[in-house]
Amino acid sequence: PLVLQVLLQSDTPTGNGLLDETLRHIRNTEPPESVPTWIELLTGETWNPFKLQFQLHNVRERLAKALVEKGVLSTAKQNFLLFDITTHPLSDAAEKRRLQEALLECWPGKPRYLERRTLILLVLLSSSHLLEAGLGHLTDHRYDLAVKRVRDLLDVDAELAAVKGGGGGGTEMIWAVLADFNG
User: Rounded distance, CA 5 to CA 155, Å?
Assistant: First the structure.
C-alpha cells in the first residue's frame, strides 16, 4: 500500500481549538508522519511512548460537544442492560435531507466528484456504522439506491484518489483517511 505523508501547507490558526491543536502537532513533527499514524495519534490509539505528546485528549467528547453546540447532534441516554450510555443522535433534519439529496437527486455520477462536505459525512457515517441513521425514512427503492451509491464510494481506489487529489480543495486528505479506514 501507498504511504501518504501529511505535509502542513499553513499553520494559520483557524479559531477551532481542536483543529489548531492538531495543526501545532503537525507543525512540530519531524519527519512528517503518514495518514494512518496521525489517525492513531490524534485519536489516542497509539501505544508508542515517544509519540504520546502528540495525542489529543478527549477527541470524541470534544467533537460531540461541538456538534451538539452547533445543533447537528443532540445528547441522549440509552440504557443497555445495567449501563446508561450517552449517545449523540443526529438532530439536524436539514443535514439528513442534504445527505439524502446528495445521494439521490444530486449524485454526480462518480464519487470523486462529490462535494467535500458530503464526502466527509459519508466517510464518517460509513466508518462509524451510522449510515442507517442518515438514510432513515426512505422508501425501500430509494434506500437501496442510496446504499448502492455509498458502496460505490467505498469501492473507489481511495489511495489513487488521494494521490490524484480527486476533487481538489483538501479532498486528498479525505481520500487518504478513507484509504486507511478501508485498509
Answer: 22
Burial 42-72 (b: 16+ CB within 10 A, else e): beeebeeeeeeebbbeeeeeeebeebeeeeb
- Alpha helices in the chain, H assignment, sequence order: 17-27, 35-43, 59-69, 93-104, 116-127, 131-135, 140-155, 158-164, 171-182
Query: Rounded to whole angstroms, what are the CA distances from 140 to 114, 133, 137?
Result: 23, 15, 9
CA gap 178, 157 in Å, rounded: 9
Q: Which residues contact 100 (CB under 8 A, 6 or more apart)?
A: 134, 135, 138, 142, 146
pTM score, whole prediction? 0.69
Sign of dihedral through CA atoms 176, 92, 19, 128? Answer: negative
Strand, helix or coil for residue 70: coil
pLDDT in tens, 141-182: 999 999 999 988 888 888 777 777 655 566 777 888 888 777
CA distance 26 to 54: 9
In the chain, where the domains are located: 1-57, 58-91, 93-182
- List of residues 6+ apart from 12 with CB closer than 8 A: none
